[in-house]
């Protein structure tokens, strides 16, 4: 290389061994459940600067640690979210194992486990050899289902009836059904988990001057688009590999817009999504991504990016997103509904959100 | 084909003159995922079997991954076998294992490839191949490694692979601009830098490309690359109205007699510079 040219190599992340040692230290700490929960944050230093595969390997290890340390209520939404939308077998297996640390896992966990087994069957892989015992990811899920006792039997039988499982999974299913049948009925809280995160205490107007750009290339201040109208604001990026997250988010936002239109409220609320990856997601990228998903662009319905760093937006909405060297390495599902004065009145994190709930919240704000 | 029958055939082939691998590849269409895959994986991971046979067996299993649900029951065993082959003594098997695991965004393969790029003494494949495989996952941590290769390696193939990798990194635009301008660099490096820069930052590309296009001291093929990129830019017509750019395009087009240039030249009206 000719003299004088600097390649600007970024400082490398700590070695994987060091990162795994950090997880082991958290697991051995007196407050292990809280220490592990802190390591679940997508932007935790543990994951910074790593590729997604490495970050997810670490995340799977953190999740599996809850089986030993105990699963606190604060970590339950992350565990359920991985079972609901996760695609990486290591992470999903870690989440399944984590439930063993819960005092009384919610009943919905059983359905999420069964759905996760079907979702990752085509990517099943051995879990990390440092998780003892090392099992296939689907086997981990099946064993986690058995721990729910009698309520798991019918779901396990449905899985077995699907057929086409490996010999190891088939054996695990037989064992799990026998275990669950023999178990005494287990007290279990019912229904969907009520552990929803508290809405961020963001100061209204704090990011009014933030420069943003929409899919057409138009540049404006945050307040130019959002001030004076209720808004549904979601977050995504076009290179997301999980169709259950970003792609579905944009499709569901389009459905929210359709409901507003049907109710004659389309002009009275903003429906928008910001990319986590503003350097890569140019207006052209945003426009193509929205068009491919039927996103009904108009003056009150846009895909956006910050023209500078994402940090102010990330801090304001307390977004769960972490970054590798070139792009996002992991993120949760994030959506906020803001009032006309900018207050955050509804916040969804981790779990899939319901478009009817978002529409009703917007309608309520419009009529307030 | 039943597993027992397959095993008999394999053992017979080991004692015969006809290469086993040849017969296996010829029978590829008849592979029965249910019965054959465990045996094929056993052959592929058997260090004592002939390398060609092992590769043929592995290729058959890989082909079966496209069977969809019928293959699912074998997937964990297949991945475990590939993990085992990553450090095999046979370079071709190592390479196949690393490539296919990388395509599946496998973290074990990515770690091995990254370790080899950081410390070439540990490399199991060439730097260019390692970068190519890591780039199969847009979310891998390959960009710092590509920058490391650019700093360290003089090998053209490795440098080209590193630059291809960086075309997915929005932070690499300035780097591409510097390489595009650098007359001491390999021609291929400058051309790929032009493509990467145009993808990542059209405005900066236009600025650098215009400088190169009218630089009589630069190489004609690099000037042609710059002009071709300008001709595809959103402001091509405006750029072609610049007499200096037009004159360069005509002069270089005549010198190189390039077909790729004909579309650009056809957009310059005859006599418009008279």
Main sheet record of chain A: 7 strands, mixed
Q: Write down the secondary-structure element order of chain B.
A: HHHHHHHHHHHHHHHHH
Number of self-contained structural domains of chain A: 2
Biggest interface, chains and residue tallies: A-B, 44 and 42 residues
Q: How much of the sequence of chain A is in beta strands?
A: 5-15%
The strand count of chain A comes to 9
Number of helices of chain A: 14
* Shape designation of chain B: elongated
Rg on CA atoms of chain B, Å = 25 Å
Number of helices of chain B: 17
Describe the 3D structure.
- The complex is a heterodimer of chains A (368) and B (274).
- Chain A is α+β, with helices and mostly antiparallel strands.
- Helices cover 44% and strands 12% of the residues of chain A.
- Chain A has two domains: 16-182; 211-367, 3-Layer(aba) Sandwich (Glutaredoxin).
- In chain A, helix 1 (16-28) runs parallel beside helix 3.
- The radius of gyration of chain B is 25 Å and the shape is elongated.
- By secondary structure, chain B is mostly helical.
- In chain B, helix 14 crosses helix 16 (243-256).
- Chain B has helices spanning 3-15, 20-26, 33-44, 51-64, 69-85, 91-103, 107-118, 127-134, 142-152, 156-166, 173-181, 187-200, 202-213, 220-231, 236-240, 243-256, 262-266.
- Chain B has a domain at 171-274.
- Chain B starts with a helix and ends in an 8-residue tail after the last helix.
- The chains are: A alpha+beta (368), B mainly alpha (274).
How would you sum up this structure in a few lines?
The complex is a heterodimer of chains A (368) and B (274). Chain A has helices spanning 16-28, 32-38, 52-69, 76-85, 89-98, 108-120, 137-146, 153-162, 167-182, 222-226, 243-262, 283-292, 311-317, 355-367; strands at residues 211-214, 219-221, 231-236, 270-275, 301-306, 321-323, 328-331, 334-338, 344-349. Chain A has 368 residues and is α+β, with helices and mostly antiparallel strands.
